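Homework help board

Subject: predicted structure for assignment chain

Our instructor gave us this sequence and asked us to write out the predicted structure in token form, then describe one feature. I got the tokens but I'm not sure how to describe them. Can anyone check?
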Amino acid sequence: MSSQPTLVNHTARHPRQRRSALVTCMLLAVASPACAPVDESDTGEQPGAVESPLPVILKDRSTIRMEALVSGRITRAGSCLYLEHSPGHLALILWADEDVQVARLEESDWLVNNYTSGLRIREGEMVRGGGGFYPRNADLEVLTGKEVSADCTGPAVQLYEVTKYDPEKPGGIPDPPPPPPPGPSTDDMLLSQAFDEHWDGQRLPKRMIRGIVDPREAMFAYVLQNYKGREGDMHAHFCLRGADENLLASLSRKFGRLFPGDACSWNGPGVVVTATGEKAMFIDARIDCSGDRGFCAGSGGATYGNLGAEHGSYRLRRKGDGWQIEKLGLSVVS
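My token output:
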């Protein structure tokens, strides 16, 4: 499905969380660090700026922008940042973009952050931008309008409108960063919620599934009861994902012909039986009976089309010759 599932907690509470003030400290200091309180509400998700008297970033105060295309690797020496434009050759960076700072991610991890463009550059990364090289004897204090630390020496380079750069890629555009690792699956969230002993949300009426010993078969049966013969789904076929032959045969005796999960596929916006093209839906059921809680956690539901899926969170308790299943008021729909 192309849509993103929505987690629905029918009685969920949303407490406001107040965050305490952060303390932003100098990162690149020679003497002992100086700290000042910063209200996090003013910083959002941006990393805190490193406040330091050292010219880690030197601003070019002139109005003249050179028009050469400059590239190289960001590197630090002493208290200053340099561009390594060729192996072993460094040029002191005079940044012509105004809103550029050194920012801290962690106590020992920093980066150059352009708050206007959103670009973040770590030490060692290749960059390319407009600018050009100053003469070796250029007066840095005249260019920057401030006193320059003795360990920040020329030659210098002007940089602006910087982008990341990979000379081995077409156009120099590097590959995008890898996506973040996936979060917990929908099923995992639903199972975890079913195990929550402090759940105080909505509970639906309990239903008995009789004559079934296996809790997963009971979970499948519960879901099939919800959809079998439901208006709009009367002519749909059901493909049970992850069900083996014995489970399919047992449930088919109660609900008519059922298909394994791989017998169905997507056709445009909907699910069909691959061999015939007839309307169908995927049926899912997961069970976790671990621990000594007196019940099993379950998740189950149906997927029948793009923008058409619903899965819920359940608790199953063995009763007599079957299972008593209770649906919690937590579901995922899309």
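Reply (TA_rk): Your tokens look well-formed. For the description, you could write something like this. Confidence is low (pLDDT under 50) at residues 11-53, 180-184. That's the kind of observation they're looking for.
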